[in-house]
## 1
Amino acid sequence: MQVLFCFGIEKRRIMYYNIQKVSKGVFMKLYAPRYYKKFKCIADKCDHSCCIGWEIDIDEDTLEKYKAPEVPYASEILNSISFEGAPHFKLCEGDRCPHLNENGLCKIILRAGEGYLCGICREHPRFYNYTDVAEVGLGMSCREAARLILSSPDYDVTEEIGQTPYGEETCFFDGRSEREKIYKILGDKSADYSAKLQTLYSSFKIDAVDDAVWRGIINSLEYLEEKHKELFLNYSSQSRPQGMDEYLERALAYFIYRHCTEAYDEEEFRLRLNFCLFCERLLASLIYSQKAGTLQEIAVLASIISEEIEYSEDNTQALTWR
Ligand code: SF4
């Protein structure tokens, strides 16, 4: 039910928008983690731009806007669209978006204005979850978002930031309360991180799975870059880096916020939590094997996990519904 998701297609992935059907005119409260408001796309300063390597599907409403002849730059935009399958921007050399200029800035914003961005470009790296309220978060595939998430200790505080159209597929299992229970365990100042993890595993009846089984699944996943398979095969539940607990805890809290909240029932919540704990162990393994020691290095590894796993429905499902 996430609004942004991607499927693997050859070496590139397509981002598309609007899985979540919304009832126009009916609104629900929208919440976000406290750090959310601090996010700002760093555009030309970004060292891993989301305007490279992704085919962007264009939603119908925005496509209609491009057809208005008075819109500046509209003819160039229309000429850059492929109508084979879902309408999308044709990528240029190096898989660059045709509207990314040599300075790393978006020509649609510069020439036509921000109001002419399609839904995906406007929303990325945000994702939405719908329960009794709507929640928005920042996806860690964006390294700027990853840096913010990993450096924000108050991940358990959400704030009302406005309203959003009511989600027709709204889920009524109380995943938010279950999530709060987990955040309470993680927030226990009297326990160290490994003790908190043990409490989590036992409270939610998460059984240990042999590392070889996880590595077998890692081996079978689809990858944007083959070298990331080699990187992920460093997975080991025994590889825990020293002094990185605060980053791992925040990453785990993010995975849970993103993936567990919309569970339909208790059993699905448990399976999703198991997936999140796997992602946490994978991040720990990568930090350990790559000897990552700085926030920047850890953010890069977290964004690779996000891009390769969270942004592939097939990979997420393979690791959740083993
Ligand atoms: S990856 Fe993040 S910071 Fe970089 S261009 Fe995209 S949204 Fe902006």
## 2
Amino acid sequence: MAIGMEYLLDWIFPRYCCICGEFLSTHKFKYLCKSCSEKIILTGAHICEKCGHDFGEISAEAPSRCLRCLNSEFQFIALRSAVRLNYVTRRLIHQLKYKYGKHLAGDFVRIMQKNIPFMTLLEGGILVPVPLHWKRVFKREYNQSEVIASYLRKFSANVEVLPLLKRVRHTPPQVGLHIRERRGNVKNAFGINSKIKINHDRKLIIFDDVFTTGSTINECCKELRRHGFYNIYAATFTQTSKN
Ligand SMILES: [Zn+2]
Ligand SMILES: [Zn+2]
């Protein structure tokens, strides 16, 4: 778009930072100001080889696996998250999920693209968004994981998106539940979408906004494995650091 046109559009439809409310002039993010975007921290070099948990800036050698992975039997080969969870990324997720924040999807992708190892994991893969039950989609009008995944496909030539899973059971939100309750809550909640026929050795990447205890993503893995898919990875925008 011509620069002059962009200024005109900004004048007619002013944009504000979705975190601090500052008025935005042209900037590389559409709904994030410079100061808020600089507070976003990409996951670093010291991460858990299994779930991507970020150990932070540690001087000693990082362990290869985090506590969460030593105590769980995750069915995916590896999971990676693009950014650390902090005040800004938590607010971004909240705005996306609960404030009709579909328009923020482009900025989510612009942030994720800065994390090269994360983007490399997606290369050549099929993103499988964690499905929501239709009742929740009806309430929110969209599935946030599906919206971000579609944007990722738009910006990355070598990524596909397929709704290979469907939610077969409506479950209460996971928020506030203990890990054991979370597991029970999502047990058998997913089914395979048998209309989609793809080769079983394709690289699948279960895609979600946040990785917490892993119950939901693990349940998705189990359903895919039940149907003969084993080349399964997972990717999320961010993850909780409870470890
Ligand atoms: Zn801001
Ligand atoms: Zn881990």
